[in-house]
Description:
Elements: E1 11-15, E2 18-22, E3 29-31, H1 35-43, H2 82-86
Antiparallel strand pairs: 1-2, 2-3
Amino acid sequence: MKCPVDGETLVMADRSGVEIDYCPKCRGVWLDRGELDKIIERSAPQAAPRREGPDNVHQGPWGGGDRHRDDGRRPHKRRESFLSELFDF
């Protein structure tokens, strides 16, 4: 298939069971029928497990939780989402 934007030949990639056609020149992404439904289904957030006990343990009057939690010593690495892995070309 050709890219509808610039006429470049599209490259097909299989990412997590989803077929994606993308243009290496303009980086456009095209999906076949049903592929968007797969992406939506897999990217829906899962219910977070409930914690036992009160939520306000060890909070001071300023509303902060653990004061050492974000002390800047090491950057917090965010877990990559399904979508970021899917469209990482």
